[in-house]
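Thread title: Can someone regenerate the structure for this chain?

I was given the following input by a collaborator and told the matching structure tokens would be attached. They weren't. Posting the sequence so someone can regenerate them.
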Amino acid sequence: MAWQVDTLFFYLMAVSAFFTLLIFVAVVYLALKYRRRVGNEQAQHVKTNYKLEVAWTVIPFLLTLVMFGWGAQLFVSANRPPAGAMEIYVMGKQWMWKIQHPSGRKEINELHVPRGRPVLLNMTSQDVIHDFGLPDFRIKKDVIPGTYTYEWFTATEDGEYYIFCDQYCGALHSEMVGKVVVMEPQDYAAWAAGAAADESPVRAGERLFTVYGCSSCHGQRAPTLAGVYMSKVELEGGGSVVADEQYLRESIVDPSAKFVKGFGPWRGQNMPTFKGQLSDEQIYQLIAYIKSLQSAQSGTTVQPVPENHGVKIERRVPGVQSDVNYPAPGSNQ
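Best answer:
Regenerated them for you:
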């Protein structure tokens, strides 16, 4: 991607330099040729040259059309990661980058990646707006609290490359610097296996799914989550939405924002909000677990609960009384 961005940049610079020089030469030439002279005080009438008018309109239009098409193609490519890209979770926090690999291994201000493999960065912020900038790879993207943003790259040369925060984020903004370490695939595999990894996001999400009582409802009285990721979800009141990471996050922190068709708001049986109860990292872990259910097979059909069914849904949520005793988060029970 970097060489493609550079090629477009050099094209823009070449076109700009050519027309700057052309206009400069034309101005000097015309100023000398038609300067005021003694005995030539009255300018001659110049007839309109339609061919010249068309030329200096059409040629710049075509050149700018190339700029637009080329830039649009690069923009689309930069926002469409290839299939099979290795997804890595990135969290911006004053003033550091917290990174977690699919295996669970965590890093701070360092990102180890294998050469030649596409890497997709799934990013969010814990506090203020940051910007994950990789100037050597010609990419940067704002990292925003409460949502996910993405960028991807494929490293083609081994080495170390700077990570900068390209959005002012407070007093130590200039010190929010890290590095990407590009390694040979076999070296990366050895590095990944060289230390005990933390709990993987999927495994941690599965634990949270049980601890917070999600399994007592979803797939029984609430919509099943097996295969829901990136599926089309019909909503109450009409319309639909694609169940991507943003939708899943919203459903966790603000479940009343969108109701699945057939599972509308009924008399105190709504899903409680987990806003303020789960950290951004825990929300990501839950989403990672839900995404892992993509290929799960469900042998039963979940039926919506009628409005007058009168079923009381019990689940353990911090601060909410419940008749079901789930182990506290972080316990070994």
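The domain at 201-295 is CATH 1.10.760.10 (Cytochrome Bc1 Complex; Chain D, domain 2).
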